């Protein structure tokens, strides 16, 4: 299994403490069939054949799964976030996706449902889309970045596209074992963003637990419990005047 086909792409990678390289993406074959794949390489670039099945862990979620980012927990488990698409409902629906794998490259069945979590919530919430467990909640959701807090909670950022093509940012926090963190924002999601935020490109966590989020030229900060931190730049956000879809803390 490789990422070399025309329908293949690498989404993200991380380096383990032992130097081995974990790569997440879409793997395609000669017939155009695609699966989500995790591949692990040794330090010298050779395939780590002890991982998954002969070096790769492949997961199919019908009708579609789009991985976007990966993070390594301190115990070696691998968390992947992205989108899970459904064509069952009209308009097309995509749910936030989380998947977790054991260090040996198999889905961690103690996480969510057999290793997979889908999360369908809309911002701003409306009467039909309040419950994140509502599988018929329309809209296209995608996580594009993920980090871990010091207590191993999963913080992911991305966007929600509504049925009228209105796009809203999203930041969600989950416990280490997949449950939405109900002490964060509203139902596990931040529900207050600065004007102009459309999609969260990158999230980072400060040593004090506060969360920074970047999107286009905006940089915003949120409290540990998911509220806009108005002590940051006097209002909770600042315009950097540069494209700031990616950020890092020194």
Question: What do these coordinates show?
Answer:
This protein is mainly β and 250 residues long. It is 0% helix and 40% strand. Strands 5, 6, 7, 8, 9, 10 and 11 form a seven-stranded mixed sheet that branches. A four-stranded antiparallel sheet has the order 1-2-3-4, with no helix packed on it. It starts with 8 loop residues before the first strand and ends in an 11-residue tail after the last strand. Residues 122-128 and 130-135 have low confidence and may be disordered.
Key structural traits:
250 residues, mainly beta, seven-stranded mixed sheet, four-stranded antiparallel sheet, globular
CA-CA gap between termini: 37 Å
Major sheet: 7 strands, mixed
User: What is the helix tally?
Assistant: 0
Listing every helix as H and every strand as E from the N terminus to the C terminus, the arrangement reads EEEEEEEEEEEEEEE
Question: What is the overall pLDDT average?
Answer: 81
Coarse structural class: mainly beta
Poorly predicted segments: 122-128, 130-135
Shape: globular
- How big is the Rg? 18 Å
The percent range for strand residues is 35-45%
The amount of helix comes to under 10%
Number of strands: 15
